[in-house]
Amino acid sequence: CLPLDRGDALFFQWAGVACFAGQTKEGQLLARLESDLLEAELQKAAATTRQSRLNLKRIEDLARYKATSEDELARARTEVEVSVAEQKILENRLAYTRIKAPFSGVISQRLVEPGDVVPRHTHLLTLIDPESLIIEIPVSDLLLPNLSLGDPVLVSIDGLGSQRFTGKVKRIHPELDINTRMGIIEVVLDPTPQAARPGQLSRVNLETAQKQRLMVPFKALQRDNAGEYVFLLDGNSKALRTTVTSGSHIANWVEIVTGLKVGDIIISKGILGLRNGKRVTPVE
Protein backbone atom coordinates (compact mmCIF):
# COMPACT_ATOMS: atom_id res chain seq x y z
CA CYS A 1 0.00 0.00 0.00
CA LEU A 2 1.19 3.54 -0.74
CA PRO A 3 0.73 5.77 2.33
CA LEU A 4 1.99 9.36 2.59
CA ASP A 5 5.16 10.35 4.38
CA ARG A 6 4.06 13.99 4.60
CA GLY A 7 0.48 14.90 5.40
CA ASP A 8 -0.91 17.40 7.89
CA ALA A 9 -4.37 17.86 9.35
CA LEU A 10 -4.80 21.60 9.91
CA PHE A 11 -6.70 23.00 12.90
CA PHE A 12 -7.66 26.41 14.29
CA GLN A 13 -6.79 27.42 17.85
CA TRP A 14 -9.63 29.93 18.12
CA ALA A 15 -13.33 29.93 17.28
CA GLY A 16 -14.49 31.92 14.26
CA VAL A 17 -14.96 31.88 10.47
CA ALA A 18 -12.86 29.94 7.90
CA CYS A 19 -12.07 29.55 4.09
CA PHE A 20 -9.94 27.97 0.94
CA ALA A 21 -8.92 24.72 -1.20
CA GLY A 22 -6.75 23.46 -4.11
CA GLN A 23 -3.05 23.13 -4.91
CA THR A 24 -0.81 25.09 -2.58
CA LYS A 25 2.73 26.36 -2.16
CA GLU A 26 4.72 26.49 1.05
CA GLY A 27 3.76 29.54 3.06
CA GLN A 28 0.52 30.14 1.16
CA LEU A 29 -2.47 31.31 3.19
CA LEU A 30 -4.99 28.47 3.41
CA ALA A 31 -7.56 29.71 5.88
CA ARG A 32 -8.26 32.72 8.05
CA LEU A 33 -10.59 33.90 10.77
CA GLU A 34 -12.28 37.25 11.05
CA SER A 35 -9.75 39.32 12.96
CA ASP A 36 -10.86 42.97 12.71
CA LEU A 37 -11.23 43.31 16.47
CA LEU A 38 -7.86 41.68 17.19
CA GLU A 39 -6.13 43.90 14.63
CA ALA A 40 -7.63 47.00 16.25
CA GLU A 41 -6.51 45.81 19.69
CA LEU A 42 -3.01 45.18 18.30
CA GLN A 43 -2.84 48.70 16.83
CA LYS A 44 -3.88 50.10 20.19
CA ALA A 45 -1.24 48.01 21.99
CA ALA A 46 1.46 49.11 19.52
CA ALA A 47 0.53 52.76 20.12
CA THR A 48 0.69 52.20 23.88
CA THR A 49 4.15 50.64 23.49
CA ARG A 50 5.39 53.61 21.46
CA GLN A 51 4.03 56.05 24.01
CA SER A 52 5.53 54.18 26.96
CA ARG A 53 8.94 54.14 25.28
CA LEU A 54 8.76 57.89 24.65
CA ASN A 55 7.80 58.40 28.28
CA LEU A 56 10.72 56.22 29.42
CA LYS A 57 13.16 58.21 27.28
CA ARG A 58 11.86 61.47 28.77
CA ILE A 59 12.25 60.20 32.32
CA GLU A 60 15.74 58.81 31.59
CA ASP A 61 16.75 62.27 30.33
CA LEU A 62 15.42 63.81 33.53
CA ALA A 63 17.20 61.18 35.61
CA ARG A 64 20.56 62.20 34.17
CA TYR A 65 20.02 65.65 35.74
CA LYS A 66 18.64 64.19 38.98
CA ALA A 67 15.30 65.76 38.09
CA THR A 68 13.21 62.65 38.80
CA SER A 69 13.13 59.86 41.36
CA GLU A 70 14.40 56.31 40.99
CA ASP A 71 10.86 55.07 41.64
CA GLU A 72 9.54 57.09 38.71
CA LEU A 73 12.26 55.68 36.44
CA ALA A 74 11.54 52.10 37.55
CA ARG A 75 7.81 52.62 36.99
CA ALA A 76 8.43 53.88 33.44
CA ARG A 77 10.60 50.88 32.62
CA THR A 78 7.94 48.52 33.96
CA GLU A 79 5.29 50.21 31.83
CA VAL A 80 7.40 49.55 28.72
CA GLU A 81 7.88 45.89 29.63
CA VAL A 82 4.16 45.42 30.27
CA SER A 83 3.09 47.13 27.04
CA VAL A 84 5.60 45.10 24.98
CA ALA A 85 4.33 41.86 26.57
CA GLU A 86 0.69 42.77 25.88
CA GLN A 87 1.55 43.59 22.27
CA LYS A 88 3.32 40.22 21.90
CA ILE A 89 0.27 38.39 23.23
CA LEU A 90 -1.96 40.06 20.66
CA GLU A 91 0.51 39.32 17.85
CA ASN A 92 0.43 35.64 18.81
CA ARG A 93 -3.36 35.61 18.96
CA LEU A 94 -3.53 37.27 15.55
CA ALA A 95 -1.14 34.63 14.13
CA TYR A 96 -3.62 31.94 15.23
CA THR A 97 -6.22 33.46 12.91
CA ARG A 98 -4.13 32.51 9.86
CA ILE A 99 -3.23 29.01 8.65
CA LYS A 100 -0.40 28.83 6.12
CA ALA A 101 0.80 25.77 4.21
CA PRO A 102 3.80 24.20 6.03
CA PHE A 103 4.91 22.67 2.71
CA SER A 104 3.88 22.67 -0.95
CA GLY A 105 1.15 20.15 -1.69
CA VAL A 106 -2.51 19.52 -2.38
CA ILE A 107 -5.56 20.02 -0.18
CA SER A 108 -7.00 16.49 -0.05
CA GLN A 109 -9.80 17.37 2.38
CA ARG A 110 -11.69 20.59 2.99
CA LEU A 111 -14.09 20.09 5.84
CA VAL A 112 -15.49 23.64 6.06
CA GLU A 113 -16.85 26.22 3.65
CA PRO A 114 -16.16 29.97 3.48
CA GLY A 115 -18.30 31.72 6.05
CA ASP A 116 -18.68 28.71 8.36
CA VAL A 117 -18.42 29.36 12.07
CA VAL A 118 -16.10 26.79 13.64
CA PRO A 119 -15.14 26.08 17.26
CA ARG A 120 -11.51 25.95 18.29
CA HIS A 121 -9.50 22.81 17.46
CA THR A 122 -11.79 22.03 14.52
CA HIS A 123 -10.21 19.96 11.71
CA LEU A 124 -10.48 22.26 8.68
CA LEU A 125 -8.15 20.98 5.96
CA THR A 126 -5.84 18.07 5.19
CA LEU A 127 -2.72 18.96 3.22
CA ILE A 128 -0.73 16.18 1.51
CA ASP A 129 2.55 16.12 -0.39
CA PRO A 130 2.11 13.80 -3.42
CA GLU A 131 5.89 13.61 -3.79
CA SER A 132 6.23 11.95 -0.39
CA LEU A 133 4.59 8.61 -1.17
CA ILE A 134 6.20 5.69 0.64
CA ILE A 135 5.64 1.93 0.49
CA GLU A 136 5.31 -0.02 3.73
CA ILE A 137 6.29 -3.69 3.46
CA PRO A 138 6.07 -6.44 6.09
CA VAL A 139 9.33 -8.41 6.03
CA SER A 140 10.31 -11.60 7.87
CA ASP A 141 12.67 -11.10 10.79
CA LEU A 142 14.99 -13.56 9.03
CA LEU A 143 15.51 -11.16 6.14
CA LEU A 144 15.78 -7.94 8.13
CA PRO A 145 19.47 -8.44 9.08
CA ASN A 146 20.29 -8.57 5.36
CA LEU A 147 18.71 -5.17 4.65
CA SER A 148 20.27 -1.74 5.06
CA LEU A 149 19.11 1.83 4.62
CA GLY A 150 19.57 2.93 1.03
CA ASP A 151 19.34 -0.58 -0.46
CA PRO A 152 17.92 -0.36 -4.01
CA VAL A 153 14.56 -1.97 -4.81
CA LEU A 154 12.33 -2.41 -7.84
CA VAL A 155 8.66 -1.48 -7.51
CA SER A 156 5.61 -2.20 -9.63
CA ILE A 157 2.26 -0.51 -8.97
CA ASP A 158 -0.83 -2.44 -10.03
CA GLY A 159 -2.67 0.62 -11.23
CA LEU A 160 0.21 1.73 -13.46
CA GLY A 161 0.57 -1.37 -15.62
CA SER A 162 3.74 -3.40 -16.07
CA GLN A 163 6.19 -0.52 -15.71
CA ARG A 164 8.76 -0.92 -12.93
CA PHE A 165 10.08 1.93 -10.83
CA THR A 166 13.25 2.34 -8.81
CA GLY A 167 13.29 3.03 -5.12
CA LYS A 168 15.35 2.54 -1.99
CA VAL A 169 14.90 1.48 1.61
CA LYS A 170 14.26 4.63 3.63
CA ARG A 171 13.49 3.25 7.09
CA ILE A 172 13.59 -0.07 8.93
CA HIS A 173 11.19 -0.10 11.87
CA PRO A 174 12.88 -1.24 15.11
CA GLU A 175 9.94 -3.33 16.38
CA LEU A 176 8.46 -6.64 15.22
CA ASP A 177 4.88 -7.89 15.33
CA ILE A 178 4.98 -10.40 18.20
CA ASN A 179 2.43 -12.63 16.49
CA THR A 180 3.86 -12.77 12.96
CA ARG A 181 7.54 -11.99 13.66
CA MET A 182 7.36 -9.56 10.78
CA GLY A 183 8.99 -6.16 10.71
CA ILE A 184 8.06 -3.14 8.62
CA ILE A 185 10.37 -1.42 6.16
CA GLU A 186 9.59 1.78 4.28
CA VAL A 187 10.57 2.22 0.65
CA VAL A 188 10.65 5.60 -1.07
CA LEU A 189 10.27 5.89 -4.85
CA ASP A 190 12.92 7.89 -6.67
CA PRO A 191 11.39 9.72 -8.41
CA THR A 192 7.71 9.37 -7.49
CA PRO A 193 5.59 8.52 -10.57
CA GLN A 194 3.18 11.35 -11.35
CA ALA A 195 0.26 8.92 -11.69
CA ALA A 196 0.90 7.24 -8.31
CA ARG A 197 -1.81 7.77 -5.70
CA PRO A 198 -2.07 7.07 -1.96
CA GLY A 199 -3.65 3.67 -1.30
CA GLN A 200 -2.55 1.93 -4.52
CA LEU A 201 -1.30 -1.65 -4.28
CA SER A 202 2.42 -2.01 -4.97
CA ARG A 203 4.81 -4.94 -5.27
CA VAL A 204 8.45 -4.68 -4.24
CA ASN A 205 11.44 -6.82 -5.20
CA LEU A 206 14.15 -6.82 -2.55
CA GLU A 207 17.66 -7.97 -3.37
CA THR A 208 19.69 -9.39 -0.51
CA ALA A 209 23.24 -10.66 -0.54
CA GLN A 210 23.60 -14.24 -1.84
CA LYS A 211 24.69 -16.68 0.86
CA GLN A 212 25.10 -20.45 0.80
CA ARG A 213 23.41 -22.12 3.73
CA LEU A 214 23.41 -25.66 5.05
CA MET A 215 19.70 -26.42 5.47
CA VAL A 216 17.87 -29.38 7.01
CA PRO A 217 14.14 -30.09 7.39
CA PHE A 218 12.80 -28.20 10.40
CA LYS A 219 11.28 -31.40 11.85
CA ALA A 220 14.77 -32.97 11.99
CA LEU A 221 15.97 -30.39 14.53
CA GLN A 222 15.44 -31.53 18.13
CA ARG A 223 15.91 -29.73 21.44
CA ASP A 224 16.29 -30.77 25.07
CA ASN A 225 17.99 -29.44 28.18
CA ALA A 226 21.39 -30.12 26.64
CA GLY A 227 20.65 -27.98 23.60
CA GLU A 228 19.91 -28.47 19.91
CA TYR A 229 20.72 -31.69 18.07
CA VAL A 230 19.91 -33.84 15.06
CA PHE A 231 20.26 -37.55 14.42
CA LEU A 232 22.66 -38.60 11.68
CA LEU A 233 22.75 -42.00 10.03
CA ASP A 234 26.25 -43.40 10.55
CA GLY A 235 28.04 -46.00 8.45
CA ASN A 236 26.55 -48.83 10.52
CA SER A 237 22.95 -47.70 9.93
CA LYS A 238 22.70 -46.48 13.50
CA ALA A 239 21.39 -43.17 14.82
CA LEU A 240 24.13 -40.77 15.89
CA ARG A 241 23.05 -37.85 18.04
CA THR A 242 24.93 -34.77 16.88
CA THR A 243 24.92 -31.39 18.63
CA VAL A 244 24.24 -28.48 16.28
CA THR A 245 23.58 -24.75 16.31
CA SER A 246 20.67 -23.49 14.24
CA GLY A 247 20.33 -20.22 12.37
CA SER A 248 17.62 -18.80 10.14
CA HIS A 249 14.26 -20.49 9.61
CA ILE A 250 12.92 -20.35 6.07
CA ALA A 251 9.56 -22.02 5.50
CA ASN A 252 9.93 -25.70 6.57
CA TRP A 253 13.71 -25.59 6.62
CA VAL A 254 16.23 -24.46 9.19
CA GLU A 255 19.82 -23.35 8.71
CA ILE A 256 22.51 -25.31 10.58
CA VAL A 257 25.39 -23.02 11.45
CA THR A 258 27.65 -25.52 13.23
CA GLY A 259 27.74 -29.30 13.77
CA LEU A 260 27.09 -30.62 10.25
CA LYS A 261 28.88 -30.81 6.95
CA VAL A 262 27.75 -31.29 3.38
CA GLY A 263 27.01 -34.98 2.71
CA ASP A 264 25.84 -35.90 6.22
CA ILE A 265 22.70 -38.06 6.15
CA ILE A 266 19.97 -36.61 8.37
CA ILE A 267 17.19 -38.64 9.99
CA SER A 268 14.01 -36.59 9.66
CA LYS A 269 11.27 -39.26 10.03
CA GLY A 270 10.45 -41.66 12.84
CA ILE A 271 12.36 -39.55 15.36
CA LEU A 272 9.87 -40.11 18.19
CA GLY A 273 11.52 -42.52 20.63
CA LEU A 274 14.77 -42.59 18.65
CA ARG A 275 17.89 -42.94 20.79
CA ASN A 276 21.58 -42.59 20.16
CA GLY A 277 23.01 -45.86 18.77
CA LYS A 278 19.64 -47.33 17.80
CA ARG A 279 19.63 -49.20 14.50
CA VAL A 280 17.73 -47.44 11.74
CA THR A 281 16.34 -48.79 8.49
CA PRO A 282 16.77 -46.15 5.79
CA VAL A 283 13.86 -45.52 3.43
CA GLU A 284 13.94 -43.78 0.10
Rg over CA atoms, rounded to whole Å, is 36 Å
Spans of 5+ residues with little confidence (pLDDT < 50)?
7-20
CATH architecture assignment of the largest domain:
Beta Barrel
CATH topology of the largest domain: Elongation Factor Tu (Ef-tu), domain 3
Number of domains: 4
Q: What does the oligomeric state look like here?
A: single chain
The share of residues in extended strands comes to 25-35%
Average of the residue pLDDT scores: 82
Q: Per the principal axes of the C-alpha atoms, what is the gross shape?
A: elongated
Question: CATH superfamily of the largest domain, called what?
Answer: Efflux pump adaptor protein, beta barrel domain
Largest sheet: 5 strands, antiparallel
Structural class: alpha+beta
Order of helices and strands: EEEEHHEEEEEEEEEEEEEEE
- Percent helix: 10-25%
Number of strands: 19
Distance, first to last CA: 46 Å
Number of helices: 2
Across the major sheet, the strand order is: 9-12-11-10-13
CATH class of the largest domain reads Mainly Beta
